[in-house]
Automatic annotation (TrEMBL), chains A, B:
Protein name: NUDIX hydrolase
Chain ranges of the Nudix hydrolase domain: 6-143
Coiled coil location: none
Lineage: Bacteria, Bacillati, Actinomycetota, Actinomycetes, Micrococcales
InterPro entries named in the record: NUDIX_hydrolase-like_dom_sf, NUDIX_hydrolase_dom, WH-like_DNA-bd_sf, WH_DNA-bd_sf, WHD_NrtR
Organism: Microbacterium fluvii
Molecular function per GO: hydrolase activity
PROSITE patterns according to UniProt: NUDIX (PS51462)
SUPFAM superfamilies: Nudix (SSF55811), Winged helix' DNA-binding domain (SSF46785)
Amino acid sequence: MSSEDITRVAVSTVILSLKREPGDEHASVVMPLVRRVRDPFEGRWALPGGWLDVHEGLDAAASRTLAETTGLSPSYLEQLYAFGAVDRSPTRVVSIVYWALVRADEVEQAHPQENVAWFDTADLPPLAFDHDEIVGYALWRLRSKVGYSRIAHGLLPGEFTLAELREVYEAIFGRRLDPANFRRQVENSGNLIPTDRFRTGSHRPARLYRYNREVELADRGPLTHGLAPAPLPSESSRS
Amino acid sequence: MSSEDITRVAVSTVILSLKREPGDEHASVVMPLVRRVRDPFEGRWALPGGWLDVHEGLDAAASRTLAETTGLSPSYLEQLYAFGAVDRSPTRVVSIVYWALVRADEVEQAHPQENVAWFDTADLPPLAFDHDEIVGYALWRLRSKVGYSRIAHGLLPGEFTLAELREVYEAIFGRRLDPANFRRQVENSGNLIPTDRFRTGSHRPARLYRYNREVELADRGPLTHGLAPAPLPSESSRS
């Protein structure tokens, strides 16, 4: 088998977080990129990732390469999509792409690595390979998923104010939302449960909410044994 | 590079359709399987599929191998998930799995191939590799997706009665649904548009409906340039 006949498998990861610089009026959706230190695309920014080892599963490879490059260890990585266009790399590479949303405090706990920087997704440099397309797809999925799932949860602490939740949506959609309309919509959704606690500080106290964990999470991967596990084959065969 | 160090890439396809045998009271969700003619798992039933050619994209490989094995050529194959557990095959194989829903008339048009048979998903034989798990995941996704998208559309003609739509849901969920409740729910969903036409026959005339194409389809792949295309990178960078 010559090297031209080989398809190699890589994993890459799209990590999204929210960042609000001191003095910024609004939060931004940010992501870590790794500067490539070898060809192809030497010097360009690329998604964190690496080669799949023959002895490790896809999820493990995604976690390992993410930790090696960025120091991040999110509790849950979801498989996003497999990218396999013939011309996406000078050699034939199929990339299994994972993604995760991480809170700002998780980002701060990670040990910064060389050649890693965080970028505002609204102002990205040209990326290596087809990573522009991959990031575009991830951001599109993020926007389409917040509408029907609790995905914004990944960017928030366990309890949050409606203003904090609205800020997440505003950063994802890149536009301001009317506070009264937003409150009405989320209160009618059944997704949020008000707590007895309040955020106090420089503003008037704001009630803290949490997500209703009984609302089923749609569209998780098959290997998740969390809130919405895939059925065992014996269960599914009853359908 | 020895053969033990190679990870190979395969594609497999889960094709789901509805079937109602003469005399059956209810429709069933059925799928085609291919009997393996070589080891590993010789004689077992498996998903249609084959190896990714180094010169073809993932979508093309899925379409080609599906047509070669089953004669089916659905207009749209959606990528479902990449399965890559280390022990899922005697050699290391990552399978990119696609799926599609096809109407009964599309199934009838396909030229039957050797070693292919259609099975009721509620009564499947033990499958080769991890294909039991893959089918279980596909059926779980089908059940979770019909709740928030127009996915049942793939199993129906362009216009259909509410009874025909309900039959799709009943087959997917494996239980009867109350006709009056079902009618109320779909009429309130905004997904259906009543037409001026009626199905006539042995029963009283039933109004035909079609799906509202303006309702955005959630969760399509990034390479779809149909109803809900992923944004170009230049669009997404504005978010």
